[in-house]
Amino acid sequence: MFQVQASHFEGLITTIVGYILLAMTLILCHGLAALVSFQRSRRLLGVCYIVVKVSLLVVVEIGVFPLICGWWLDICSLEMFDASLKDREMSFKSAPGTTMFLHWLVGMVYVFYFASFILLLREVLRPGVLWFLRNLNDPDFNPVQEMIHLPIYRHLRRFILSVVVFGSIVLLMLWLPIKLIKLLLPTFLPYNVMLYSDAPVSELSLELLLLQVVLPALLEQGHTRQWLKGLVRAWTVSAGYLLDLHSYLLGEQEDNEANQPVNNNNNNNPPHAHHNNNNNPAPAVGEGLHAAHQAILQQGGPVGFQPYHRPLRFPLRIVLLIAFMCITLLVASLVCLTLPVFTGRWLMSFWTGNSKIHELYTAACGLYVCWLSIRGVTVLLAWMPQGRTVIVHKVQEWTLMILKTLVVALLVAGVIPLLLGLLFELVIVAPLRVPLDQTPLFYPWQDWALGVLHAKIIAAITLMGPQWWLKTVIEQVYANGIRNIDLQFIIRKLAAPVISVLLLSLCVPYVIAAGVVPAVGVTPEMEILMQRRIYPFLLMVVSLIGILSFQIRQFKRLYEHIKNDKYLVGQRLVNYERKAGRGSSIPPSNPVVE
Question: What GO cellular component term, any one, is given (predicted)?
């Protein structure tokens, strides 16, 4: 009991234990009902047990497993942040709910990206190579049905195997690279990731900006997935030819296409060298990861299997392939942990000196520089076969496009977020945080960072809302993209109206509070009160007017609906006489009966 109370989650743990005891009780009652042949009671108890069983499995798969992954990631990365288990224990005692939620969130992100990588592998590898992994694109897959039909010991075995697989990957790609970095580059670690700062700029807002705006834009617009898919394909081809597993990894069709000239001249391969699926022993029932983890191992044989050529010493080659894969993952992890941070530190040291900077900023800066370098090299390699004239013409086009993009970025990503963040500061933050006897301080950089987040939220709500001019403009700009960017259209239809509205929202209250109110002859205290409270007051007035106008429109629609339901038959009004107007000389017609 003392250990349960020390966990700070005694209510949740007690509830889970209660459900487990309830499930065991239902199993016992179900068995007794089966012995005495109470069919209705047996059926009812079985349904209740299934509900409790599925609920517990969902909690374990979606709640407990990501939490274990998050804590294991944190434990394996302690040396990277110069932390200890004592620090994590103190953090947990100070804020247990926040700590558990953050670890669960990190675990969910890890599981999600692992599943995304598995889906990418399926696009490259031969169908049947990953037979032991659940195909998430299979339309016949139903996770709830598996939860119902499979026994508890199967789910427990899957859970243990999931923990072993994911934990081993964390050891391979996080713990071991950190040890090698500390051995080879002793001064590189630890990372500086303190969430507090003496500077007036809130680092947490900048971290939200990087995570919500910068990195998603990099992943969406930088062809990152295509590059990763190309790297995986190149590695697969190299490993296939080195270990004579090209047919096993990529399929016999691609092997025949690659060797078509050779096969035309020398066609001595016997047909019995290719093994069919029916000739191979059926794979054992696989254990694996549940669909809630995006990587469940499937039950039964492979789906969409393609035949392949089985070389000599096939098990030894598979072992060498796995070892080669582990070495590649280790090297890739080393590069990802060092190259972006090292590049970002070197670049930011030119204007910050030796001061410590949050590693999220250095990593983001280095990641962008690496992306731009790779993008530039790929573009030049694509242009080189076309000649010097085409390259010069392309450089001119891209220069003009970059200048247009910079102008649009200055307006849409610079001016509008700054005005929006300043307006939010005046309307919400300053009235709530700063008393009337103190002077509020405004930091444009922080207001801009918060304004970017607010602008992103407003744009998302606009795109999900009803059709109106702003949604149409945003959709048109997104459809044009960067290559076909229309500077005049963006300035005239998007930037100018939005900036005008924001400037009016900022300037009109200030003119009233600083120009009109002092001319009336009020006291200085009233002037300060007006200057500090006029922005939320006008927001309240505008909101009230909007609500009233919305309600008036709704009442009008309700009145028209009632009138049409009562008097409109088909498309003709019946039993309805319009009151004679002041200029009306036409007598009302007789009511029509239909």
Answer: endoplasmic reticulum membrane
